[in-house]
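Appendix B. Chain record.
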Amino acid sequence: MTRDPETVDAAPMPSRRLGSAGPVVSAIGVGCLGMTGGFYGAPDPLVSLRTLHRALDLGCTLLDTSDAYGPHTNEELLGRLLVDRREEAVVATKFGIRMDPVTMRRTVNGRPATVYASCEASLRRLGVDRIDIYFAHRVDPSIPIEETVGAMADLVQQGKVAYIGLCEASPETIRRAHAVHPIAAVQQEYSLWSRDVEATVLPTLQELGIGLVAYAPLGRGFLPGSHTDPSQLDPLDVRRNLPRFAPEHRQNNLVLVEAIRALATENGITPAQLALAWLLHKGPGIVPIPGTTDPRHLAENAAAARITLDDDILEHISNAVPAASGERYDSAGMKIVGI
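Structure tokens predicted for this chain:
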């Protein structure tokens, strides 16, 4: 293994193409989910905005948001950044998930009318005239995927969207969607403790020349050991209700943390860098989007793009880190993935 200097300003951020014909983006992007309230507590918006500026300074060009984050406030935050730095960013946003503010029940809507209206609203909040990558946040099982993707293709034809993608879709759905219009990327949860994508989805993407945007690549902060105790999280933090953070699974999953920490120490890097570098080596079209509002963690994550792991170390990491205990989401969340 070779390691680059800790200071990420020492060399430019490497870039990758999402799929065979998708956009060129930074090897490591930024997930913006936690930069506004609604999921991981209530961060300071000024701190979040400074973090976004620093991300671009470090060459992290892919910035991922959604109209469901906030809702809406996350796109508005990103819009404040884009006023001055639009040409430096590759903007990805999503549509299709709605959360009832009273019952907190999630619904998915991929109907063409929703696609068109959601796009117009996102363009307005982001303050841009084109979305670089537009994702269907989840697949709507009530209508054919061809109808959703057909509407997204219309947006490409109109110049309002450059590339389109799906999130948490099954291989069959991906193939059907790709037959309607080229899918540039699919977003999947992928990390050392979420590897189910490797069995069927990842081979499908590689066959079709589609990129993979890996969200939650650090296990929502659990894998580096920074957020393993739910009692220490903000009362409104959604991780308090995720199975892998629950008492019946947490203790087993701490074994993963210790394994990753030991491997990172052995290789002279941090746990977060080990997890991200491992992902980057799983395929040239994979781009992780870790999220943070901490400038130190941002720099640490960015530096992982220049860490080289040889095949023996990669295999050792894969074998040494045990499978996670517990599902990725609660029962309601699991019902809307893999469709």
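Further analysis of this model is presented in Appendix C.
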